[in-house]
Amino acid sequence: MCSLLWSSIAMCVALQLLQLGIVHPSASHLRITHLPGQPQVEFQQFSGYVTVDDRNQQALFFYFAEAEKDAASKPLVLWLNGGPGCSSLGVGAFSENGPFRPKGEALVRNQFSWNREANMLYLETPIGVGFSYSTDTSSYEGVNDKITARDNLVFLKNWFIKFPEYRNRSLFIIGESYAGHYVPQLAELMLQFNKKEKLFNLKGIALGNPVLEFTTDFNSRAEFFWSHGLISDTTYKVFTSVCNYSRYVREYYNGAVSPVCSSVMSQVSTETSRFVDKYDVTLDVCLSSVFSQTKVLNPQQVTETIDVCVEDETVNYLNRKDVQSALHARLVGVQRWSACSNVLDYELRDLEIPTITVVGKLVQEGIPVLVYSGDQDSVIPLTGSRTLVHKLAIKLGLKTTVPYRVWFEKQQVGGWTQVYGDILSFATIRGASHEAPFSQPERSLVLFKSFLEGRPMPQEF
């Protein structure tokens, strides 16, 4: 009980909350009391900065939503969006699998939020993304996978100082798109660090529509286009022989697209049509800028102004001063928060460094890995991911333990899955886009729950 000597009732209440474990003692200043327009919830939220480089004053921004119920018994999940250079706050938390989605001036509950099953930590990485910043703008130049992995490791180490009760908690890392680079490389560093000091209780990683091997992933696009009726037989032939997609992307980022590749891509673009969302080929609605995390994977020779038919509510919401204040966030060196960074100069040649080999090392270290694909995504199609996982299983000598089969969500087929050696898994999410939790939230939640529990996808309904 509080003594009557306390001069402030508020201080008394705060002390009681700390004693009950309701507010984290070392992170109470990071607690979100209430987001503007937020419905009432029982779980706690935190957000703010973790310094990763004192000398250059570099800080990464995070948003943390504890589990809806029994947070103390639920695992910790770190979620990373890709790009490279896109926000896990705006894309992941507020558009995909977080507890809220902006609607007008308010927030509405996402009934399929992943914090139903876990404590969700969203990290805006690398520096220069979202609210993450460096006071030395030269730090934004030449950022690469190695720098990003190192900063993410430092972030987690320092985050555990603020939230020590999560230090020994089961930890999973999940990400999508270019996080196919971020996640495995961070996991590898964590295992290396654990050999010196046991800090990370890593239980598994999951990768959604990930970039794992440049040539296979990118060149699978031609077959996907053709099999879905988006290009003609003639175009399919030249797209797989005269100039494939990996060659085009390589030339594009080297600043010199050859006439032959320019001609082929013009033909592909004409047939697929700019009115088809390449990240969900069945989608009828307009593409919001919140999905620009994948633009780097889909470069265009001619910049087009996209006709956004619906208001980008996430961007509007996160640019409100009252929202930024509630999140303990600030803009440093930029005028507006954006879903993908306008200041980050990332080393895009890192695209060509395969990370499927790192995934193999993790499996050999006993870390379960799930690769999942929204099956309507043509940017990183399921065919490439499926091929890479199967080849990795053969290389590692893993036998099929769950034969390729359907899995269910309620009374409908949720997708297909195959498991190798009870440690390496592949799954599709039926009807899902590149951002699977956005387009198929309920099916994505079923997949997420099965992954955390370490069991195969539901075989019956």
Automatic annotation (TrEMBL):
The keyword Acetylation does not apply. PROSITE patterns: CARBOXYPEPT_SER_HIS (PS00560), CARBOXYPEPT_SER_SER (PS00131). It is an enzyme of class 3 (hydrolase). Its main location: secreted. Its EC number is 3.4.16.-. One of its GO terms (cellular component) is extracellular region. One of its GO terms (biological process) is proteolysis. GO terms for molecular function: serine-type carboxypeptidase activity. Keywords: Carboxypeptidase, Disulfide bond, Glycoprotein, Hydrolase, Protease, Secreted, Signal. Residues 1-25 form the signal peptide. PANTHER family: SERINE CARBOXYPEPTIDASE-LIKE 46, SERINE PROTEASE FAMILY S10 SERINE CARBOXYPEPTIDASE. This is Carboxypeptidase.
